[in-house]
Amino acid sequence: MDLKVLNATIKKEFQIRLHAYPISFMVGCILTSFYTTFGAWLMYHYFFRKRLAVDFTELAGTSDYMSYAIVGSLMYLFVVRTCLNVSRTLITELREGTLESLMLAPFKRTSYFLGNMLLQTFMTFGETAIATLIGVFFGLRIHDFSLLKFVVATLLSLYGFFGLSLMLGCLMLYARDTYISQNTLFTAMFLVCGVTFPKEYLPSWLQLIGSIIPVTDALTLMRGALLGGLSTESFMLVSLRVFILGTIYIVMGFPLMKHVERIALEKMEG
């Protein structure tokens, strides 16, 4: 890893976030989490009238639906912000006309993408903290907090999100599109990864799709760390799954990114 490239990437992206993106962009992301939480609150109180399915507690690991849904919405905010901003870095370079110059520079992909990920993670923590305060107002309660599990869940989640962002970045750069690809993926994740309800309620083929996306198990880990309901053995097993999935995405993502970069440059010349 090249620390010079890492530091330069962080400084560059920070300046872009500071000067190019207004505060309203951050507010919009926080509102996304608010709408998800508010929608879950309306359904729980007025549509379901605070009644849950008999097997909900067994599947979710808690009987507190609002805490379950709010933790899911907070994690969804986190994955959208990290994956979105890391994955669209190269297509942004392409649109700004600097991709060719970047390829000619001493460009270390690991340091470049990791720098973007670190900065975005730091900024998203601030947004998530604000969204958490909103969640407390709607009924978020921490039932069985474990600091060790929380740290492990956070690190493994970021690892899985990083791998996922590489694959999404390849798709964006190849298609030269951000809107359709990103919104399709995030909508699918919201459905199959168990953001506001246990994924076991879905058909088996949708559960299978959700099982190969690291977000699903990352949600399980974070809920286990904050709400309990997950034994130590189960926590370790799910942690291993997230690590394996993240590794697969990363191992596939970097070589595929190089290939897509060549295609993008050829299209520029063509």
Automatic annotation (TrEMBL):
GO CC entries: plasma membrane
Highest taxon of source: Bacteria
Main location group: membrane
Location relative to the cell: Cell membrane; Membrane
Record keywords, A-Z: Cell membrane, Membrane, Transmembrane, Transmembrane helix, Transport
Residues covered by the ABC transmembrane type-2 domain: 28-260
Coiled-coil parts of chain: none
Secreted among keywords: no
Membrane topology: Multi-pass membrane protein
GO molecular function, one term: ABC-type transporter activity
Bilayer-spanning residue ranges: 20-44, 65-91, 111-138, 150-174, 180-198, 205-226, 238-257
Family: Belongs to the ABC-2 integral membrane protein family.
PANTHER family, alphabetized: ABC-TYPE MULTIDRUG TRANSPORT SYSTEM, PERMEASE COMPONENT, NODULATION PROTEIN J
Protein known as: Transport permease protein
Species: Pseudobutyrivibrio xylanivorans
